Every structure is written in C-alpha cells, then in structure tokens.
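anyone seen this seq b4? input:
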Amino acid sequence: MTVRQPDRLTPELAAWLDQHAGALDDGTQDPASVLPRLAAAGLFRQGVPEALGGLPGTDIGDAIEAVSQVAEHSVASAFVAWGQRVFIEYLLRSPNTVLAQTWLAPLLAGEQAGATALSNAMKFLSGIESLQISARQDGGQWLLDGRMPWVTNLRKQGFLVAAAVSAPDGTPAVVALPHDIDGLARSADLDLLALQSSNTAALDVRGVRIGPEWLIHPDARQYLPQARPAFAGLQCGLSIGLARRALRAAQEAGQGQASRGILGEPLQALAAQLDDLTARLIDGVRSERFVAEPWRLFELRIGLADAASQAVQLELQASGGAAYLKPAGDGFARRWREAAFLPIVTPSLVQLKTELAKRQARLAAEANVSAGAASRGATSEAAR
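predicted toks r here
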C-alpha cells in the first residue's frame, strides 16, 4: 500500500495508543494521560533545533510524519500532538526569545500543554471574521476581553494558549496566556462526537492583564503567513495517518475474499495518490515554498482530507457488514467519526475552497485586463 516511513513512535507508545484508541475517542480515558506519553516518546522534539532541546537530525518534515503516525492509531491523540507541536513552533518563530527560553523545556517534556487559538486569526487574515479578543491600554500593560469558543489541548493540569488580539492601535497581535492568569476561565470540555480526550474547551477572557513579556509577535499579519505552513502541515498529519490506517484495514479486510477483488485497483490508486500528496506537502513545508504560495498548501490540505474520507469509505466497502457490527466494527466506526472531523477543523475545507475561488476570480480578472490591453494595442497598431 503506502510507502512505509521510518518509525517515529516507540513500540510502547504505539501499543498504548492502539489499546486505548476507543477510550481516547469517547472520553473514558483520562485526557491527562495523553500528553506525557507523547512527550516521553520524544514526539515533540522532532524538528526542534538540538541547541533548544530538539532531536538531532530532524526537521519539520519529521514532525509532520510523527503526527501522522500517531493519527494511524488515534486521531484524538494526534490532535493533541498537533496543538502541542504547533505551539512549540510559534515559540521557535517568535522574536520574544525570553518567552521561548522560559517555556520550551516544559513544553518539550510534556509538563506544560500548549494550545493554539489562532484559528480566529487565520480567518481574520482571510477577511472571514473579526478578531474575537480586544486589548485596551492600561499604563504599560494591555487589558484583554473576549472569548475563544473552541481550543484543544487545554490540559487542566496547566496550559499556555496562543491567541490573536486586536491591539490598542488596531494591529492584530499574537500573545500567550497562562492558564492561571487572572480573568481567564476554562469551560467544561465540549461534548464532541469524537476526539473526546483531547481537552477541547472554550476560554473566556475578562479583564486579563498582560505585559510585553507575553507577546509572541506584535503583528500577526507578518507572523502568521510565516507560521501557517507548519500550522497546516502538521494538521495535515491527521488526514495522512487516518488515510493510511483505513487503507491498511481495507486491504486486510479484503484479503481472501474474491468478491472484494474489485476494490484492489482503487485501493492502489488511492495509496499512490496519498503518497504523492504527502511528499508534496512535506517538500513544500521544508522548502518554505508555501509562505509565498499558500494556495498550493490549501490544495494539499483539501486533497489529503478528501483522501482520508475516501479511504474510510473503501474500508467500509471492503469490510462489508462486519464494519457495521459491534464490537468488530468499533475501529471502523471510530475512523468514520474521525474522518468527519477533518473537513471542519480550521481552516475548514469550505474556507480553503473559498480562498482558492477568490484567487481564481482575481487571476481571471487580471487576465481579462491584460487581454483587453493587448486587444486595444493591436487595434491601435492596425489603425496606423
């Protein structure tokens, strides 16, 4: 099936994820147990410079592969891994070196959770919605008010959350907020259809006072386009891992069943497509091509989510009625719910398709202007 990549998970972690995948999905497994196990396997050190506590010889492509391999076993755990590793990436790219030096070690060790609430900022940059947190000046500090309705990896034992705020002068800034700062309130976990052990909740921000030491970057318009490839690339790991696991399950279910042989060709075609999309994704993130050409990243995010959906559908067809029976079909049912999550996680497929449609409309308009200018030039020349 798909090309096998070097293992980024320890056998112990892979076995634990397999054993508890169902409980991690339905919330019966303690959410606090996920982050330390991922950290103990060195997952968050992938792609971090060695001088800062990272794993030698690895880069952001290895980090994407690590998230993908977690998702092969549990998308709930991969969602946590994504949030943690993305927050680490924010600090690596921040000009606030003191903030990074203070928090990188506990984040890499899984002692502190890192959560990203920058979905709102991504939408803001695309003109889809306004920023949900505002700041007003109070001496040398900012007072923040607003709400973050959906944030993952808000570990009750302690977290830092990255949020976009409208600064007093109107500039969109990116800040970090610790869980125990006055005025920050975490809701109960959201009642999701799946991924229940991901510590996903809402945050209310009421009169939160911060100084410049909590500033990740003063201008999100400059910062986020640089951070977006890692944000979305790591997120694509959820789709890659789920698609791989569903394709493997489909192949195993169809073995020895002549009636399912008709699925052999589409399974092979989808596996080849998945390998191609994955290679293009990792190459683009590594080369930073997506900073200047974000639409290519958007196309890959859409393609990988679609591939995961198709893979789960093929697993159902290969498994037949067994996939619809308990307990035999529990794994398939979990993957079906996980696949339903991929199109809606920000940036959602609808948002990305909207951005691509805007780009196509802009290119068409520019082409029309150029064609009109060329036509007028030709007419003028003929008149001479």
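The two ends are 66 Å apart (CA to CA). The longest helix spans residues 220-254. kinda curious what u guys think
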